[in-house]
Amino acid sequence: MPAVEGKLQIEYVDPNTLRPFDGNPRTINETGLEKLQRSVEEFGFVNPILAQKGTRTIIAGHQRLKAAQAAGLTEVPVVWLDVDDVTAKAYNIADNRTAEESEWDFGPLADLLQELDSGALDLTLTGFNDDEIERIMNWAPPEAEMGSLSDLADVGEKDTEQITLVVHMGEADGFRRKLREIAKNNPDTDDIAPMGWALEQVLTAYERLSDRQL
């Protein structure tokens, strides 16, 4: 049985009457908050906050609440969830964690930006800055062939931008998660830099695979 049953209903409330979850593990930087605020001001507050019924504690939507307050909104949409503290905290983590599993498919993304590039809309409202938008719209699929790590010294400026763009826009979190998984196999339990050890294993494996393919 799901923890939340029945149809969800939205109520508009004063944002200042909601209580942030003191242990919320997710944060946002100033640039991200500015982007959220611009989105709220341009598109409206279209993604309701989830809050615990009775306590008015926010379960999901802390950053949206900050953006709404920065934008001067006097009302925000809220969905009240009648759940206990354990369920509320678990969903808080799940909501943030599952959002990290999605990645950008740069081909369709480039097509969408090209379609929107008519002058009728400020494309930075998508959350990407001008440099990122330009690189995405000029994106091309990477070559399928693999070389050795030494080849990285010979890549051109465009190739470097491609690599940087992929890591910057969705791959970095996945890469770090994989490194953490590999780091669990570190035989030195006292290693103060297990991620460095994991990265060394990745690079060694990459060189070995490259040597077999060349």
* Alpha carbon gyration radius: 22 Å
Major sheet attributes: 4 strands, mixed
Total helical segments: 7
Quantity of strands, as a count: 4
N→C terminal distance = 54 Å
Beta-strand proportion: 5-15%
Outline the low-pLDDT stretches.
144-161
Helix/strand/pairing class, anyone? alpha+beta
Give helix and strand order, one letter per element, not per position. EHEEHEHHHHH
Mean pLDDT across all residues, rounded?
81
Shape summary: flat
Strand order of the largest sheet: 1-4-2-3
Helix content: 40-55%
Please, could you describe this protein's structure?
The chain has 214 residues and is an alpha+beta fold. It has helices spanning 30-43, 62-70, 85-99, 106-116, 130-137, 157-183, 194-213, and strands spanning 10-13, 49-52, 58-60, 76-81. The protein has a 4-stranded mixed sheet with strand order 1-4-2-3. The chain is flat. It starts with 9 loop residues before the first strand and ends with a helix. 12% of the residues are buried.
